[in-house]
Amino acid sequence: MRKILVTLLFLLFGTSAFADCNIKSGSINILANDFPALRTFVETSKQCKGSADFKVTHSSEHNKIAVPALTANPSEFSARIAANSSIVPLMNQDLIRPLDDLVKKYGKGIQDSQLITIDGKVMAVAFMANTQHLYYREDVLKDLGIAIPKTYEEVVAASEKIRASGKMQYPYAAAYKAGWNLAEEFVNMFIGHGGEFFKSGSAEPNINNAKGVATLNMLKKLSELSNPDYLTHDSEAIKVEWESGNVALMTLWASRSGTLLDDEGDPNITKATKLTGPATVGGGNIPAATLWWDGFTLAKNRSDADAEATFRSLAHAASNKKMVADAADQAVWLVEGFVPGPKSIGVIEAVKMGAKPYPMLPQMGLMHGALGSEIVEFLQGKESAEQALKDVEAAYISKAKEQGFL
Amino acid sequence: MPNKTFFWFFLPTGLAMILFIGLPIISTGIQSFYAQHDQVVKEVKKCDPFGCTVSIVVDNEETSKIREAKPLGKFNGFGTYTDRNHLAVEEIKKFWNETESFGAFVDQVTNLPFYKALIFTLTYCLFVTPNVLLLGFIIALSLNAVARKIRGPLIFGTILPMIVTPLVGSLVLFWMIDSQGIIGANIQNLMNDPYLSLKSSKTLTWITIIIYGIWHHSPFAFVVFYAALQTVPQEPIEAAIIDGASRIQRIKHIVLPHIYPVVTFVALISLMDNFRVFEPIIGFSAEGSAQSLSWLIYDNLVNEEVILFGSAAATSMMTIIGIAILLAPVLIRTWKEFKTAR
């Protein structure tokens, strides 16, 4: 935690040299998610392609392509922009290569805090941080004399007050779309309650307990204050809800703040849109949110020449002070030279409050998947919290057995 | 056609079917009996920008050794088929012993993912197939009766739902039934309930998907029926008119018996298609309320960060068996008729 603060706040004074771009050969092909910061990052690395081939695929379906594409030999992509969760399947299948040599040789401007090391080996180089935190409408809260909520209990109370005032029918929004998004909200809230997903040292599930029930009850309360279609709403959908002025409190990714605060849309709403840290829940002192990093990894099944070319071009972006200065409002960059602006408040607050990173465990994907489908019926009021948690554990256990984790 | 001619005629198709359908099914079948090897994990130190922790990773060296020895995985027999996410044999036994009333037992069973999906799939088939047949037939009859001049454009308009890509068609409807969309908002007004949402209620979601299914599939039935109607001989119909038969009597006693084989064909194809219902669930973002067998396969393959090949293969095999069971009555009947015809 201290590391990131140091990274975020004191980087102005650092010195570094840019990676040199004298790449003679090789071909570069990058797979990445699709949001503005990543596009900027890849564009920047393209400036340093030398005479290598340069291709990129930006897709929001990147998770579905990654494992099959990197399993092929030679692999389709030479690099994959991954995050805490999406690096795990690549590690499980042994599809990415250690970067130690390349970092030593070409990674001059990359800071130590950017390196993701697993078992002493550098497996990825991070360049931005992300989290989900609260957004609020200053005008609405002021009108009704509501203080900025610090806990989810206060979010519920504030939303009820807004609804009672008749200003908005569904004052709260979060990405509750059944599947990955909904499960992510559970993960955040469960961690906020101090929960651990697995019994220590094993892959046995550990969510069917008082913390799990409290988590579900809070999600249910929040869902009742959301648009009734919440089970179909992803981040993009709630962003639209916000921009139409239907929502006054929202939990959303920090990386989306740029599009919320840009010139498009109603200027009054944009002006009144304010960011604050993630909320805590149930009297806990760590926020109900997870910290994420985005970084690049290199495919194992690709020639050393390609890996070298790819690393050099990506390292150019991952240590580029000009990029982080120009695109300061697109993301919370972990790169040297970044000066946090008003749009970075969410992540910085989360780090200050001691938010935990998303658990980087080999079996976490299975738990996430089971959560996404099995807690829906509880939110619809069709089953009890205990039953839903029992279902999640049972679904997870079957999958984990098939995968050999149990 | 002599058997020999038929053989050579059919050979290319047959080969392609074996290569692209038969062999993959066999390979899927084999895959479904295997699970992943036990994971070898080790404790390591992980460091990221947010700090260091000690946690576990998969030991790749050990794993690759085991994988090389047995690339298919660990033999699991029917283990995947009977686990909780599929047939859930043990869970059902437990529910049977533990629950007091039959209703509670059914509740528990329909809470299991496979049965949940099976029930939706069957409901969808049960409502969509007959309605598609009926609607297709009515449209074909009506169009057959209108003046030739306007028939062309009308036919084109009628088959539009089939031309529109399923995903696009369902997305259009999805936006219309949004609580702020044209249909959704009007229903809220009509029912005078601002909290009514077509997307959040399970029943309403099912109804929406079923209506969409009927809308999308009817043109297929219509096209086939319309073609068949052109072959109905005019003489018996004229004779029936002279005998004073009403329109309904003519349809019942002359038209329907004549196009009966075509009805069987459409019913077969329609059942097969409907049993594999998938696109509307994605288009309507209805994963929360409606899951079909095909959706389960999709979920196992792409929605998890860890791909579950065994689970997906087992569900695929059971879908094939399900289709075979559904089609059995029709197939047996066709076979009997074929034999008597000889």
What is the third-level CATH name, the topology of the largest domain in chain A?
Answer: D-Maltodextrin-Binding Protein, domain 2
Order of helices and strands of chain B: HEEEHEHHHHHHHHHHHHH
Proportion of strand residues of chain B: 5-15%
Order of helices and strands of chain A: HEHEHEHHEEEHHEHHHEHHEEHHEHEHHH
Enumerate how many helices of chain A there are, as a single number.
18
Helix content of chain A: 40-55%
Q: What integer is the average pLDDT of chain B?
A: 89
What's the number of domains of chain A? 2
Low-pLDDT ranges of chain B: none
Structure description:
The complex is a heterodimer of chains A (406) and B (342). Chain A is α/β, with parallel strands linked by helices and 406 residues long. Chain A has 2 domains: 2-130 and 290-340, 3-Layer(aba) Sandwich (D-Maltodextrin-Binding Protein, domain 2), CATH 3.40.190.10; 132-288 and 357-402, D-Maltodextrin-Binding Protein, domain 2 (3-Layer(aba) Sandwich). Helix content of chain A is 42%, strand content 15%. Chain A is built from 18 helices and 12 strands. In chain A, strands 1, 2, 3, 4, 5, 10, 11 and 12 form an 8-stranded mixed β-sheet that branches. By secondary structure, chain B is mainly alpha-helical. Chain B folds into 3 domains: 35-70, no CATH class; 76-111, no CATH class; 112-341, MetI-like fold (Orthogonal Bundle), CATH 1.10.3720. Chain B has helices at residues 3-31, 60-69, 79-82, 89-98, 102-109, 113-145, 148-163, 166-176, 182-191, 202-229, 234-242, 247-275, 279-283, 293-303, 309-341; strands spanning 34-35, 41-48, 51-58, 74-75. In chain B, strands 1-4 form a two-stranded antiparallel sheet. Chain B has a two-stranded antiparallel ribbon with strand order 2-3. In chain B, strand 2 and strand 3 (51-58) form a beta hairpin. In chain B, helix 6 packs parallel to helix 10 (202-229), helix 7 crosses helix 10 and helix 11 (234-242) packs across helix 12 (247-275). The relative contact order of chain B is 0.10. The mean pLDDT of chain B is 89. Chains A and B meet through helix 1, helix 3, helix 4, strand 4 and strand 12 of A and strand 2, strand 3, helix 2 and helix 14 of B.
